[in-house]
Amino acid sequence: MWGILGRRAVDGGLSASSLRRMRSGLVSARSYAAGSKEMTVRDALNSAIDEEMSADPKVFVMGEEVGQYQGAYKITKGLLEKYGPERVYDTPITEAGFTGIGVGAAYAGLKPVVEFMTFNFSMQAIDHIINSAAKSNYMSAGQINVPIVFRGPNGAAAGVGAQHSQCYAAWYASVPGLKVLAPYSAEDARGLLKAAIRDPDPVVFLENELLYGESFPISEEALDSSFCLPIGKAKIEREGKDVTITTFSKMVGFALKAAEKLAEEGISAEVINLRSIRPLDRATINASVRKTSRLVTVEEGFPQHGVCAEICASVVEESFSYLDAPVERIAGADVPMPYAANLERLALPQVEDIIRAAKRACFRSK
Amino acid sequence: MALSRLSSRSTTLLQPLATTSLLRRRHISTDTTPITVETSLPFTSHLISPPSRAVETSSQELLSFFRDMALMRRMEIAADSLYKAKLIRGFCHLYDGQEAVAIGMEAAITKRDAIITSYRDHCTFLGRGGGLFEAFSELMGRTTGCSKGKGGSMHFYKKDASFYGGHGIVGAQAPLGCGLAFAQKYSKEEAVTFTLYGDGAANQGQLFEALNIAALWDLPAVLVCENNHYGMGTAEWRSAKSPAYFKRGDYVPGLKVDGMDALAVKQACKFAKEHALKNGPIGSNHHAFAFVFEQILEMDTYRYHGHSMSDPGSTYRTRDEISGVRQVRDPIDRVRKLIIAHDIATEKELKDMEKEVRKEVDAAVAQAKESPIPEPSELFSNIYVKGFGAESFGADRKELRATLP
């Protein structure tokens, strides 16, 4: 098959796509080496909102407990004191109402940052996110754009049970007109949230409660108030040549741990942090798979019709002849989240699962 | 003034008609001398003193009411024909019978005040300054439509006139409208938002959520319930435990208005706008006096057509009821009678005006019929303001895909 020959030629030489990925890999190495500062994801988010509120008087924050309580997860800490009650609004527990009000304010040109205490509660307001926000620019042929950000913790926490643990990435990312972002590191949190707030379109910003307290090295560049990350571009967290692992949010950390373990066994894994679920960076994913010829795609959410399914489809459509093994999916279990700790552990992807799948893709195990 | 007019009228009745027209007629289009007319019914109120029944108007205003309502009526009837001819597809919700609400409201507010409504939005769009040609083009899915053919009947917008649509989800416009009011207050605009919804939407939870926040945060929002007594096929008494919609705001003052009387609508909207913009001693002590800026205006109105073009409108109400309202309460006829009674124009002049309106509508329909359909590339336009080079796909993604700028 010419596909194999074609691939060998690419492997032998330096294609434009591999050059591009090498460059981005170098940039990430540089930022990690030079950054002597560390920042928690919580502080990263807080500083991003603070700076964007300072830069643009149209930006305001709205949600339950975001003001006087300093934020249920302290993401909006200090903002009420700094900007006053005309910029930071505590809402009643009425998601449908306050989300609709936020979207209406965005219709009129303001820039609301609406917090859902968790994205599970966004289901009460989902009509406004989809029908009032996502579709308006299209239905009005460009007259009504909606520069709103819906943000909050998404996915599983620890021991919070079935109604408080769902991941909404796949649901929101299927909707044209929305942008869906999922940060991992502190740099991601700052750069993507700033980009989201500045963006003229509705953005669903999926954070993770368990990442809030985690510290990451952060570069001087990322600390600058004008720092912004591009929407729609994935980041290669770790370069590799044997298998591509794609994932987002908390699972990036798991994938990196898996890559360490795999390296000890001679498997070089390339870890891609999606950062943007919609638009999905199919180009980076496919370029990586064309290099490694094997794919393990990882997410925390339910497996059926998930983000992994979309990535698998994309790779099968665009890079079929480059695949040396079936695409592997590691996702949350196909069950409502149980409470018992051992069952919860079984319901979520663990590092061992990612390692096992990578080995399967490399034909090192059944 | 009224008395002297009455007596002069009685004397003209004894004089030959020719002299009457020379001596008594004022110039019909530009006279703004105030005329005071009483509303057909008194206002019923909740938690507030109602405005006076005496409404100030003028010849100019009454004639413009007549003409604009006649235009709206003609447009909706034309849309009915186009739908039956299959030139309009999907959903088409007509407003004929309810014109007085759109017209009376416009007379009380400016284009800086915002309006948001449901899917029954064609006449609201016209009231905000939208054109017949853009309306018919949109209905027929042409690129010359107000939403370039991308929206359809339920999604007319005119942002430069503060008209924010046109919404297909029942009740969604209630919080959205309160959000528009929020933005007006945030930007210190001295303007008000009128959020229209129907008796069907009046039971929606999100409406009460939005009302609660609007009252809590003193938003300049006026909620207008266009009560045409039927939520699709369900009469108000079958869907609302309390169909006194103007009272349903509880702590929010309300007014019940004869929605078939354009002057009553104008008076109520003017009253509500002033109330919503009130500042000063009462405003600053509002927490102490539980002063609420919002109001609910319940417009008692009626739609002649069914809920939409798919609904004959006669399975849940009698034809007698429909024709009864048409005979006794038709909003255009009411203004026609007022104009004739005040000697502003003759019956023939008004009929001529209606003929002109009909020609205008027919011309717009003809022009819209000739307009082009959107280019296939429009499938992918306006998904985002900034697409960042993302890709979008057609049904066969290997055949049809686009890069979003």
TrEMBL record, chain A:
<keyword id="KW-0560">Oxidoreductase</keyword>
<dbReference type="InterPro" id="IPR027110">
    <property type="entry name" value="PDHB_mito-type"/>
</dbReference>
<protein>
    <recommendedName>
        <fullName>Pyruvate dehydrogenase E1 component subunit beta</fullName>
        <ecNumber>1.2.4.1</ecNumber>
    </recommendedName>
</protein>
<keyword id="KW-0786">Thiamine pyrophosphate</keyword>
<dbReference type="InterPro" id="IPR009014">
    <property type="entry name" value="Transketo_C/PFOR_II"/>
</dbReference>
<dbReference type="InterPro" id="IPR033248">
    <property type="entry name" value="Transketolase_C"/>
</dbReference>
<comment type="function">
    <text>The pyruvate dehydrogenase complex catalyzes the overall conversion of pyruvate to acetyl-CoA and CO2.</text>
</comment>
<dbReference type="InterPro" id="IPR005475">
    <property type="entry name" value="Transketolase-like_Pyr-bd"/>
</dbReference>
<dbReference type="Pfam" id="PF02780">
    <property type="entry name" value="Transketolase_C"/>
</dbReference>
<dbReference type="Pfam" id="PF02779">
    <property type="entry name" value="Transket_pyr"/>
</dbReference>
<dbReference type="InterPro" id="IPR029061">
    <property type="entry name" value="THDP-binding"/>
</dbReference>
<keyword id="KW-0670">Pyruvate</keyword>
<feature type="domain" description="Transketolase-like pyrimidine-binding">
    <location>
        <begin position="39"/>
        <end position="214"/>
    </location>
</feature>
From TrEMBL, chain B:
<comment type="function">
    <text>The pyruvate dehydrogenase complex catalyzes the overall conversion of pyruvate to acetyl-CoA and CO(2). It contains multiple copies of three enzymatic components: pyruvate dehydrogenase (E1), dihydrolipoamide acetyltransferase (E2) and lipoamide dehydrogenase (E3).</text>
</comment>
<dbReference type="InterPro" id="IPR029061">
    <property type="entry name" value="THDP-binding"/>
</dbReference>
<dbReference type="GO" id="GO:0004739">
    <property type="term" value="F:pyruvate dehydrogenase (acetyl-transferring) activity"/>
</dbReference>
<dbReference type="Pfam" id="PF00676">
    <property type="entry name" value="E1_dh"/>
</dbReference>
<protein>
    <recommendedName>
        <fullName>pyruvate dehydrogenase (acetyl-transferring)</fullName>
        <ecNumber>1.2.4.1</ecNumber>
    </recommendedName>
</protein>
<keyword id="KW-0560">Oxidoreductase</keyword>
<feature type="domain" description="Dehydrogenase E1 component">
    <location>
        <begin position="67"/>
        <end position="376"/>
    </location>
</feature>
<keyword id="KW-0786">Thiamine pyrophosphate</keyword>
<dbReference type="InterPro" id="IPR001017">
    <property type="entry name" value="DH_E1"/>
</dbReference>
<comment type="subunit">
    <text>Tetramer of 2 alpha and 2 beta subunits.</text>
</comment>
<keyword id="KW-0670">Pyruvate</keyword>
<dbReference type="InterPro" id="IPR050642">
    <property type="entry name" value="PDH_E1_Alpha_Subunit"/>
</dbReference>
